Amino acid sequence: MRPRIRATKVTQRRVLPERSRLTVKRTVAALRRSREALVDLESQLGDLLVRVRSPGALLDHGATDRLALAKNDAVTAMASLDGMGQPFG
């Protein structure tokens, strides 16, 4: 008869301390926000390129404002990643 395998308690399976796990969650959230902001910026630039390249292109007045907002969102999101090179603590 084989010995029965006991389930490991959750507290014994922790790989990272509580504070580090929170840092990882925040880092993942920051990465997600940055990716979304960069995708939005890329989309705004792509739309502008399509309009500029089309014959008789007319840009709407809100295009520059939308592009500026997308750029600001991307800059803010990237700034939140500034501390990613720091070791978990």
Supply the number of helical segments. Answer: 3
* Structural class category: mainly alpha
N-C termini distance: 46 Å
Give me the Rg, rounded. Answer: 23 Å
Mean pLDDT equals 76
Q: Give the strand content.
A: under 5%
Number of strands: 0
Q: Helix-strand pattern, N to C?
A: HHH
Low-confidence stretches: none
Number of domains: 1
Helix coverage percent of residues? 55-70%
Approximate shape: elongated
User: In terms of quaternary structure, what is this?
Assistant: single chain
Give a quick account of the main beta sheet: strands, pairing sense, barrel closure.
none
Name its key features.
89 residues, mainly alpha, 0% strand, elongated
